[in-house]
């Protein structure tokens, strides 16, 4: 993968900053640039909350990589390179967590697209030291700074946001970490999907579980189901596990890159699939999800999907299943259903 994203291209112009350094890379990195970077510095470690990206890096021995909601491993690094994430709160979260693991006076480089709001790093970094812009190109900015202030110990619990969701006669507590879909609110698409579901049985997969709203409501309404929940984000997985626990529910929650880690015997797959990758619209994962769904369902299995009306999912579902029914529709969302 030699084609680099714009933030990596601007970083590529600045290899002098990395010479002789042990670099920790984190944030919205989406390409193989850390492997290239390892040729220009002493060592590269990557921390990612994105399971798909973690799986890609596993094929290289040039970098050490860690996947999770929190970096718990003991690592040696003296320079932190953050690819600015799309959610400002997630950037704040990454700085607090990673600087707590790094030595005093460590250097920090932040890169990202200007439209992602990277300029906010000047204010966000103020408690740690000063950071300044040293380069800009390809509508991206490159900041360098140094952590000169003491950093507070990091506690993941402090970063959870809890809110209440009322559905039918039930009240649920939802717990979510920064950057997780449905962080602090009940998505209207998910609500419409729940309104459209029949009673469920057997093994049910909440695909792209986010903070766990769908899975928890399905479990409360159908206490006999065997609930499984998956997501590509470690922050989502951690949030869903916390949401299940907060409501006294149980289910298997795990990381999966589309169907990489799922079983193949679901009675129902229920999903409010994402269509964004970073700042851009991306349909690839959802297309794979829909096209391959029959392979992961039992003989009488079914699929329930909520999607924005502008997304052309029915032809894909029709192609995969030979049928696709619109169960419900509003001005913004549609609920699609297919049977194997």
Helix fraction by DSSP (H/I, runs of at least 4): 10-25%
Rg value: 21 Å
End-to-end CA span: 37 Å
> How do the strands line up in the largest sheet?
3-2-1-4-5-7-6
Could you describe the largest sheet, including whether it forms a barrel? 7 strands, mixed
Q: How much is the average pLDDT?
A: 94
Shape type: elongated
Stretches where pLDDT is under 50 for at least 5 consecutive residues are 276-281
Instruction: Indicate the proportion of strand residues.
Output: 25-35%
Tally the beta strands: 18
In DSSP terms (H or I, runs of 4 or more residues), the helix count works out at 10
Element string (H = helix, E = strand): HEHEHEEHEHEEEEHEHEHEEEEHEHEE
Category from helices, strands and their pairing: alpha/beta
Features:
7-stranded mixed beta sheet, alpha/beta, 10 helices, 16S rRNA (guanine(1207)-N(2))-methyltransferase activity, 340 residues, 18 strands, methyltransferase, Small_mtfrase_dom, 32% strand
How does this structure look, described?
- This protein has ten helices and 18 strands.
- It is elongated.
- By secondary structure, the protein is an alpha/beta fold.
- It catalyses: guanosine(1207) in 16S rRNA + S-adenosyl-L-methionine = N(2)-methylguanosine(1207) in 16S rRNA + S-adenosyl-L-homocysteine + H(+).
- Monomer.
- It holds the Pfam family MTS_N.
- Belongs to the methyltransferase superfamily. RsmC family.
Present the secondary structure layout.
Elements: H1 6-12, E1 22-27, H2 33-37, E2 43-48, H3 51-57, E3 64-67, E4 79-83, H4 88-99, E5 107-113, H5 121-124, E6 129-137, E7 140-147, E8 161-167, E9 170-176, H6 188-196, E10 203-207, H7 213-221, E11 226-231, H8 234-246, E12 252-255, E13 266-271, E14 276-277, E15 280-281, H9 284-292, E16 297-308, H10 314-321, E17 325-329, E18 333-339
Parallel strand pairs: 1-2, 1-4, 2-3, 4-5, 10-11, 10-13, 11-12, 13-16
Antiparallel strand pairs: 5-7, 6-7, 8-9, 14-15, 16-18, 17-18
Helix pairs in contact: 9-10
